[in-house]
User: Fold this.
Amino acid sequence: MLCSIVVTLWLLLPAITYFLYWYEVASGGERSIVEGRTGRDLKYGVLLSYLTSLLTLPLIILTYPLGWFAFREKGVEEGNSAKAMVICIHGLFHNPSAWLFFSLIARHENLRIIYLRHNPWDGSFVEVAEKLYLQVKEAVRAQKEPVVFIGHSLGGLLAGKIALKLVAEDLPVSGVITIGTPFKGSKLTVFTRGRLARSLDYNSPLVLNSYDDFRNPPFPAIQYWSPTDNMVLPPFSLYDVPDGWEERMIGPMCHVACLFWPPLLKRLCNTVTAFSESRA
Assistant:
């Protein structure tokens, strides 16, 4: 009985999110835009992304407990210098275990990683951003290597906010990388609770003000996004990046699959290296 319930939920929950995705894209007129960008029928992308959701959901459940205790600052081996210090900020309802696969690849790229954590009940977006900023400010001040932020989903908005605050205090930031970040918010926040989660309401004053703040940042900034992201609706919120940002589309996959996809994680490491070398 329990096994049947688990399997049903495993199949059903991703299906519901892609039903909502399909309805939004088809009714909102974005289907032709998405198909034009991907060069393939949207049905193919949705099916493939649904399968990636089925694959990654068990991975998230299995790795989630690691985020409670296993993720602290990760450095290069003693005596080696790091290419850069990478500050990673996870998305809503996740924890630092989101960066498990990235850390495995980054370890071989001489990158020093700091994991910041937050939860939906920490307060408003502004309060959480300030809290994380205070946590990381002294580490950035003391850092000799270039500093690069990477944020997934809501973590991307936090990364941009914190990076701008650091630069305003003449502290160095070499770049910001966001993955699946909803720059205009998401309509799916109506199903969430908590002040931090509701900060992502679609076209809310907070996200629109942040969007304006992010225009023409004093550092290179890149958004990686999937055209079939099932957690950011409408997709327009993903690729309509602020002026001065670059957007790079990746293959069709669900919102969290990008955290486990080795080709993208390798690209992230390469982007960090490019940012650090350009500011060296």
